Amino acid sequence: MSGRTESAPASESAPSSASAGGGRSLRRAGAVVGAAVAVLALWAVAVPVAGIEVAGDRGGTVGPIGPVSIAASALGAGAAGWALLAVLERLTGRPGPIWTAVAAAVLVLSLMGPVISAAGTASMIVLLAAHLVVGAVVILGLAPTARRR
């Protein structure tokens, strides 16, 4: 064996744009799923462990807010954030800062939901925490994946 090392061909050593895009999509999907997992963990601590009844006004009727609703809301918010980021990447030269500002504003506005519709103080605190957890995971997970045009 000679002391010579062979380098990999350029196509193997440098990531292709397709694989870079695939990695970005995987990170984005991880942020969306991570938001759902994080909020489900919060719900599991609040409801079965701490015994808090999480309930809210649902179109005139007060009812419990269960894990399916919590997870679906987190997945929906994360998917909407991902979609907005993808649109901004096509329309603007600096999608990251714009998306982050919009996402933060949406998070702040979303906090009005629990304040207005939660059935009791404990429910309001859990739901406010749920909004903050989802917002934090989505914003911190998606913002770094923004790419310039």
TrEMBL record:
Residues 1-22 are annotated as: Disordered. Residues 7-19 have a biased composition (Low complexity). Keywords: Membrane, Transmembrane, Transmembrane helix. This is Uncharacterized protein. The chain crosses the membrane at residues 29-52, 64-86, 98-116, 122-143. It comes from Streptomonospora alba.
